[in-house]
Design brief:
- This protein is mainly beta.
- Helix content is 7%, strand content 38%.
- The protein is built from 2 helices and 29 strands.
- It has helices spanning 3-19, 248-257, and strands spanning 60-64, 74-75, 78-79, 81-83, 86-88, 96-100, 105-108, 119-128, 137-141, 150-157, 160-166, 172-176, 183-191, 196-201, 204-208, 220-222, 233-242, 272-276, 283-284, 292-295, 299-307, 320-325, 330-335, 337-339, 349-352, 356-358, 361-367, 375-376, 384-390.
- The strands form 6 sheets. Strands 1, 5, 6, 8, 13, 14, 15 and 17 form an 8-stranded antiparallel β-sheet that branches. Strands 4-7-16-9-10-11-12 form a 7-stranded antiparallel β-sheet, with no helix packed on it.
- A hairpin with a 4-residue loop joins strand 13 (183-191) and strand 14 (196-201).
- The chain is elongated, with a radius of gyration of 23 Å.
- The relative contact order is 0.16.
Length: 391
């Protein structure tokens, strides 16, 4: 962390809190100290036309679909710390996480510091719902006072107030006007070697040069700044972080196509079982390995089953099951339902219906109670099977 940057950040915070900084200057259509959405909005900034190219899952460090409450999610085996964030059914793509601006956040134990990832991309859908006044606001941040990697709303860029990104020694890159209650696609691309930070807001591109980033926290917050609050009020959806600098075409591809989202199957599509690692005869507890599988095509995952015969006792209370890709991306974990197993054993079958698209690749199935997760001699690993719709 650069102490000069820290002092600048603290000075800015002091100025905001000392002078009653108002978001009226940040929000398009604000007059007379109140935020107003006019009948005819100001002329929007025009996106620069670019070709589109969906990024692969290579270097995808984090993907959060926000389809259920944050308490059901984990990153690399660690359950996400959360306060006040809840699921909201009215997301940009399915559900979203709702932040109340009163202390809510979700903490992800992912280190995005430049020493670890000199090139990094953060993307999210966000809908700001107010309030009309306050300080800077963060959608994603690991800032500790040095204008560290963050994406949100600010007024300190050379272009005024609006959606912005922190840019280290260059302070703030932006800004694109904010419209209350409107979904926007946000992305910030960091390149420590080129000393650039590039911001994208609904296809509008802003770039700042001579931007060197220092060290921030070894974790990140969604919906707040981990050091200074800067609480977000509204909805956040479809967060992705890549350990590389996505191109403009890839950013536009994510905005226009939004892969890895829950999709309703077409009437002609039928689920098929694409992984099954054994039968339920002569099963035991305490497998030495979790089941793994590889698929060469994308699937809309419709069902995932784990078997907990557990010496004819079953396993209650029910927990969670999920998937982890070979690249470290975690899907779920999802809260399970249960049904009887062979011989009427209660809670033997744990199952979930995620309706989540998983790309071609290699995966490990996870379970919150591996001690009672059954296996048999045929595979040696715990028993699972998955069904889905080929894409």
């Amino acid at each position: 962390m650069n102490t000069k940057k820290l002092s600048l950040g603290l000075l800015a915070l002091t100025l905001f809190t000392g002078c009653g900084f108002s978001l009226d200057s940040l929000l398009s259509g604000s007059t007379s100290g109140k935020t107003q959405i006019p009948d005819s909005s100001p002329t929007p900034l025009t996106p620069t036309p670019v070709s589109t190219s969906l990024p692969t899952s290579a270097d995808l460090l984090l993907y959060l679909d926000m389809e259920t409450a944050p308490v059901g999610y984990s990153y690399q085996g660690q359950v996400l710390e959360t306060k006040g964030a809840i699921a909201n059914a009215h997301g940009r793509l399915g559900a979203a996480w709702q932040m109340d601006g009163q202390g809510s956040y979700v903490k992800v134990p992912l280190d995005i510091n430049p020493e670890k990832y000199p090139r990094l991309t953060m993307t999210a859908w966000a809908r700001y719902n107010g309030p009309e006044s306050g300080g800077p606001i963060q959608v994603i941040s690991h800032d500790d006072g040095g204008y560290d990697r963050s994406l949100g709303i600010d007024h300190r860029s050379s272009e005024g107030a609006g959606w912005s990104g922190f840019a280290g020694s260059a302070a703030v890159v932006g800004a694109v006007p904010v419209q209350i209650g409107q979904w926007v696609f946000l992305a910030s691309v960091y390149d420590q070697q080129a000393k650039t930070v590039t911001l994208y807001v609904n296809g509008v591109r802003k770039q700042i040069e001579n931007a060197e980033l220092g060290t921030g926290h070894p974790f990140l917050y969604l919906g707040a700044n981990p050091s200074f609050g800067e609480q977000f009020t509204g909805l956040i959806d479809e967060v992705r972080i890549y350990g590389r600098a996505l191109s403009a075409a890839e950013i536009e591809g994510l905005r226009e196509n939004a892969p890895v989202v829950p999709v309703l199957p077409s009437p002609a599509a039928s689920p098929v079982k694409f992984f099954d690692n054994g039968n339920i005869q002569a099963v035991f507890n305490g497998a030495s390995c979790a089941p793994t599988f590889t698929t060469n095509k994308d699937y809309l995952l419709t069902e995932i089953y784990n078997y907990h015969w557990n010496d004819a006792k079953g396993q209650a209370p029910p927990g969670q099951i999920g998937l982890k890709s070979s690249t470290g991306v975690v899907y779920g974990p999802w809260e399970v339902s249960t049904r009887e197993g062979q011989g009427g054993v209660p809670h033997a079958y744990w199952f979930a219906n995620p309706k989540v698209l998983i790309p071609a690749g290699s995966y490990t199935v996870t379970d919150s109670h591996p001690q009672s997760w059954s296996y048999n001699a045929a595979s040696g690993c715990s028993i699972s099977w998955l069904t889905g719709i080929p894409q």
